[in-house]
Amino acid sequence: MSNPLYDPPQTAKQKRRAAKLAGRPRLSAIWLIYAREMRDQLRDRRTLFTIAVLPILLYPIVGTLLLQIAQFTQQHPTSVCVVGTEHLPDVPSLVSEDAFAADLAPDAQQLRVVTYRWKDVITDHTVAERASDWVRNGLFDCVVMVPPAFAEPKHRLSDQDASIRLLYNVASDQSMVARDRVTGVLNTWRGGWIRDRLASSGVDLDAIEPFRLSDVDIAPERTREAALWSKLLPFIMLVWAMTGAFYPAIDLVAGEKERGTLETLLCSPALRSEIVMGKLATVTTFSMMTAILNASSMLVTSSFVFRQIGIGSVDNTIGAPPMAPMLWLLVALVPLSALFSALALAVAAMARSSKEGQYYLMPLMMVTLPLVMLPMLPGTSLTAGTSLIPVTGMFLLVRALVEGQYVLALWHLPIVAVVTGVCLWMAAKWAHKQFEDESVLFGGNDQWELRHWVRHLWRDRQTAATPGQAIACGAIILVALFFGKLAVTEMPTTFSGIAQLVLMPQIGMILAPTLLMATVLTTSLRKSLRIRMPYWPTLPLAVLLGASLHPLYVTLASWINQMYPVSEQAAAAMKPFAEQITTAPWLSVVFLMALVPAVCEELAFRGFIFGGLQRGKNAVRAVVVTAILFGISHGVLQQSIAATVMGLLLGFIALRTGSVLPGILLHLTNNALSVSMGRIANSQWGGASMMFHTTAEGPQYQPLWLVACVAIAGICLWWFITLNTHPADAEADHIELDNTIVDPATRLMAST
């Protein structure tokens, strides 16, 4: 008989089932995994050396080398040759014996001057040739040539041959230094000459210099130091946070694969989410420790080295930054380190070994480093637009806090917090999904051969593209568009030139690769491009949705232009383009600017690429990735943001209808209205005044018309939401599961 007082121990499978039924990860399990991973990492001498010992030793050694090198980088005297001294006037004096006049060159000891008479230099070569050889061969750093015509006052202004020439070598740093010094001397000499001539003519010298200008920096010393460190220190800490996150992530995933301990951990009672959160906390800890220790060591060493070298502000020193404002940097380091750690953990899960994992570091750095470099650009400040950029917004927020701009930072804090939180959540979900997919953790061990791979592509073609083929198609399109834009040197000024500018990328760089890959890699061109007849009411409703959403789309574009203003140079370059579109025949404009992009872009992004990314019932991946690729393909930042938002809507319509045709109609309607707004607003049609009003930026929709259109668009969207997903989208997955040669991921799906 069973004893009711006896509770048999649960197996690992039962514990996992109980944890899943609880609906949330257990903190005790997360802490246990975190403690285990921290203990294992701290036992590794390489990890301890990289995180603790290396920063303590590296920066003092680098600082010592800088102090030694600084002895060779002090300013050295430069040699200057003046040819034609006999042509110089006596008053004011430029050269006296072997130096420039004392009142012209305060640092006369830094200039060694050698003088020659013009006739003494003339040989078989001209004076200019000999002087050029002297500078080129390093005999002199620069040469000042005073031609004979300079001695004649009537030739100095009218005759080009009478001008003083300064010869230097831009390939030589020493020659460039000499050029700057001599240019200052000549400018001072010319100013003195002008004053002497005006005084001799009886002109009051105050007429040419009515006032003096003096600039005064009112910032305290500590504020100046904070301004310097607020730009430098966050950059250093974020770079080290990225680096410090990746190597522990490789060891925690790829390293455990090599040691054979990852399978044991996955078979434990811990949920995958608990394993991911425990490892993520470990990687985040090491990321923060690496960033803090490296930044602290660099800070102490650089402050000492700069003070010894004499680099800095007014007192020639750069002191330590104020500690209280720098605490904001530590607060911001927590979410950013967690973000980098989640990305590193997800990327490391794809590696089969530690060696392979290190190859993924550079691509990850190349993607994230521009977000860290952007705040370092001159003129970049915290605005509504920059606060929406991941990592960059947090960087600028910290810089504003360090510089004492608390009101500005508080105003943009909610946006930065939401953007950072969303990015962190997405990165953590990606890492969790990587651990849920055993094909990512343990697949891909077979050796890859090009011949077998090509044979597999042709022999095992299916009705739709695979996710890898879809991503490859998107990458090919973006690369082709990038080089196509580089080939355009100037904007066309005729409509035929505009037609060529539009048709070449649309047909040659978007549609052609899509059709080629769909023909070669799939068995059905129609199914791979998702060209199927949907439920017939979706077609007119797609047109109605496009027309009703256009006022909201125009408003969104206006907001984007306010947050990210178009430069004057770009606006001037686009002006001939807009003028040609306005004056060209309307049907030609609609065909070129609306129909062609709608067909080509939808077949590529919501057709071939969408169908491949939707494999395995990954609807969210298909909608989001195609929207991002669609936005990037537009090139201009303002258009890319608006196109990404529109791409999300087009992807949703493609998902609900199971066809590319409604998206083509919606895309066509939106583009046609965009190129026709000016014509409709300026027409004699009576309803134009009810729809549009004229502003300095062009025609805009009336507020009442905007509200009415939003209401109609809401009804249309609700109809699409209630529409059942087209069953044809599951055909590709079904066919793939019946195949004998499939990817590891699909083989696992078929076995479950």
From TrEMBL:
GO molecular function: ABC-type transporter activity; endopeptidase activity
One Gene Ontology CC term in the entry: plasma membrane
A UniProt-annotated Pfam family: Rce1-like
Source taxon at top rank: Bacteria
Entries under NCBIfam families matching the protein: ABC_perm_CPBP
GO biological process: CAAX-box protein maturation
Name of the protein described by the UniProt record: ABC-2 family transporter protein
Record field: transmembrane: 48-67, 232-250, 286-306, 327-351, 357-377, 408-428, 464-483, 503-523, 535-560, 580-599, 619-637, 643-669, 704-721
Source organism phylogeny: Bacteria, Pseudomonadati, Planctomycetota, Planctomycetia, Pirellulales
Domain CAAX prenyl protease 2/Lysostaphin resistance protein A-like: 586-673
